[in-house]
Amino acid sequence: MTELSKILLYPIKSLDGIAVTQATLLPGGALQGDRELAIVDANHQLINGKRNADIHRLRSQFDLPQRLIHLNIQGESSTTSFHLDLQRPALEAWFSDYFEQPVHLMQNLETGFPDDLESTGPTFVSVASLETVASWYSDLNVEAIRRRFRTNLELDAATAFWEDRLFGEPNVPLPFRVGDVQFLGINPCQRCPVPTRDPDTGDVYSGFQKTFVAKRRETLPEGVLRSRFNHFYRLTVNTQVPASEAGKVLRVGDAVETIAGRYDLS
Fold this sequence. Notes:
Layout lengths: L3 E6 L8 E3 L1 E3 L12 E5 L16 E6 L4 E6 L6 E4 L4 H12 L3 E5 L16 E3 H9 L6 H8 L3 E3 L18 E5 L2 E10 L17 H12 L14 E7 L8 E3 L4 E3 L8
């Protein structure tokens, strides 16, 4: 039986994640606390790994019950702590100094700030997939791949790319269940430049995407709809969450159950 083995939240978009044992679904489909905050510049443009490689050098640790963030710069020993709500102006000033431009934090308590604005549910991957991808690179381990792809929910499936069975034909959401929470599998996630970079330094890994594409094409599981891969720089599954699931709780150890049929969004 496949189970949910890890839940990862990224409280501030593009910063480090935190593992938790349970998470609540928000009305917009996101996990409570995931990408709740985002750093934006004076033009309200996101400062993220796609646009600013300097963000990779920020190390962050979170105490979500206490609403605290502990920040330091990669390679430096000093750490500065802030309350995410009560010390928001001071936190924004710290980020502004680091990025050498005025920035502030935006907050969204319903959907967070997902990359896919249509599929706002959490992303899924199996640990076996992360292990397989790590094996394609002689100097990367599973944790390095985990930090590059930044997935929310990890499964203990026995085979790599097991999660590819959680999506079907285009425009036909595929229902599945984790514990008592229903999800709709939408598509294999198209990746951005972030996984090609060292998560600590932002340095580009030469040939990362080329190797990934070749190996992903070669190892695509039998029975997976090849037509969903207009290119093979795709990993993890994007989801939507029906409004009926808001307030439900996911827990590590929850069973994953595929459901025959399709889901009608009308």
